[in-house]
Design a protein that fits this description.
The chain is of the alpha+beta class. Helices cover 24% and strands 41% of the residues.
């Protein structure tokens, strides 16, 4: 199992233990000196304190949730990751739904990776906040506003790309997944320097509701201005198709947009509200960058995926 797979599995175990309010399982995932920081939830130190606090979140009411957009990077005995999460809490006719961002740090102890630090931030919420009384100062459906206080996560300082700058996956498919997650994190967190590194100089495509755009300057500039109007952005998504050329220097892939309010249909099939048709190439610095991008609205399910048109 690769280090990346180990870290992704660890995050998955964290998700399950957290949603199940399993304090004992959480303690097995943490280092003894773990720290937890959140503007909404408080700051806690130590394995027992963090596990006890997080395990209390969903004890009172049924909760479900999923993590997406997970990116991991490692260097020597340190690793970092970012993940998006949407959490759905329900009790009778009451419902609370939110989108979150988490940053994880990991350390290697006795040849086992453990979570050593967590940053947790709610990006938006809708519904009954009374279902999660331990969380405070939550941004509403419009995202961060002046009354919401300082953010916990600053991409330029805290993202995995900021902490481990030269990490690159050697597997082309994983590198493409990492590229989309980098783009989404950059645009959602208004990290323009990170966004710049996602695009080739000749990037072009369709960017609704903006117009067709070409050139890095026009694409980045337009997305930067558009992002300022939409602090609630959070691009939950996953890769559903990929086609890499035989030389492993260019690829096309399809990313499906996940809408937390409606993730499955009446037949329990995964459904998506839109998709990206993306093309990327491996450039001279051994970095994959997007050279063509088209955003296409329209629902589809996991068994009826769109065809490539690029």
């Amino acid at each position: 199992m690769t280090i990346q797979q180990q870290l992704v599995n660890l995050i998955s175990q964290f998700k399950e233990s957290w949603l199940l309010a399993d304090e004992q399982s959480l303690t097995q995932l943490f280092s003894t000196d773990i720290t937890f920081k959140s503007h909404h939830h408080g700051c806690f130190d130590g394995c027992k304190s963090v596990a006890r606090t997080l395990s209390a979140d969903f004890k009172s009411y049924a909760a479900s949730g999923e993590f997406s957009n997970t990116f991991t990077a490692n260097k020597n005995d340190f690793a970092a990751a970012s993940s998006y999460a949407y959490i759905d809490i329900y009790h009778g006719q009451k419902r609370f739904l939110c989108g979150c961002t988490l940053i994880f740090h990991f350390i290697l102890e006795n040849q086992q990776w453990l979570i050593n630090h967590i940053k947790f931030q709610v990006n938006w919420n809708k519904g009954q906040q009374s279902l999660i009384p331990s969380w405070n100062m939550l941004p509403g459906i419009q995202g961060w506003q002046l009354v919401d206080g300082c953010p916990t996560i600053v991409s330029e300082l805290h993202s995995p790309w900021a902490l481990i700058k030269d990490y690159k996956s050697t597997d082309p498919k994983q590198a493409l997944i990492d590229l989309y997650n980098k783009y989404a994190f950059a645009v959602d967190n208004s990290d323009i320097n990170l966004l710049i590194d996602c695009y080739s100089e000749d990037i072009h495509g369709s960017f609704p509701p903006l117009s067709d755009l070409s050139g890095k300057e026009n694409v980045v500039g337009s997305l930067k201005n558009f992002r300022q109007l939409a602090p609630f952005w959070q691009h939950f998504a996953e890769i559903v198709k990929v086609d890499v050329n035989e030389h492993k220097t260019s690829a096309r892939f399809i990313i499906a947009r996940i809408i937390p309010e409606k993730t499955v249909d009446d037949f329990n099939q995964k459904i998506y509200a839109a998709h990206y048709q993306l093309a990327a190439r491996l450039e001279s610095d051994n970095t994959w960058r997007l050279c063509e991008s088209h955003y296409v609205a329209g629902w589809f399910n996991e068994h009826n995926l769109p065809n490539f048109f690029i």
